[in-house]
Amino acid sequence: xxxxxxxxxxxxxxxxxxxxxxxxxxxxxxxxxxxxxxxxxxxxxxxxxxxxxxxxxxxxxxxxxxxxxxxxxxxxxxxxxxxxxxxxxxxxxxxxxxxxxxxxxxxxxxxxxxxxxxxxxxxxxxxxxxxxxxxxxxxxxxxxxxxxxxxxxxxxxxxxxxxxxxxxxxxxxxxxxxxxxxxxxxxxxxxxxxxxxxxxxxxxxxxxxxxxxxxxxxxxxxxxxxxxxxxxxxxxxxxxxxxx
Length: 244
Ligand SMILES: [Zn+2]
Description:
six-stranded mixed beta sheet; elongated; 13% helix; single chain; alpha+beta; Immunoglobulin-like; binds zinc ion
């Protein structure tokens, strides 16, 4: 299971060797390893709002006998870069910051813009921290941005006892135009530094940048027109935040 994108489970009980067995009085419970309390699941449907590994067990009656079945492990993961990069709310914020990045580009300075992407599992909505402006980069130097450490989870160390949480699930930043640059082509998409930062922080990183020109080159030239096509890139160093 994955928070927001695949967070609905419907548990069913069947006998591995006797599919005709009819169970009655079926009820399911869930717990988090390390925590003693089992929680009843209403009916058989469950919505994942906390990341981690959980155990699910069932109580049932068949042929007049009572059974405890399980437990089985349920793994709830954080969203992946691939899921987030096509999410319409994230796309809209990314294109907004891209437009601001283009507006801030002058013949003498460029700024990368960035933020953290947050997921509130109470509402299954993405939101964003305030925009960070990278330092001004003169046109004979590469631009960069430093977002620091991701915001902590709210509540701190969410468990199944909490109904939901707000998690930082990815970094995001823009790269900058070469329209006024004088020092050669540059690679597009996640840079080696972006990949290292994502790996070290153990959190995904999405990047908005121009589409390579020409096709297959992996670069854009100097003096690339500012309004050229751009898109979201994944970094692929940490495809999703680890949940265990
Ligand atoms: Zn970058």
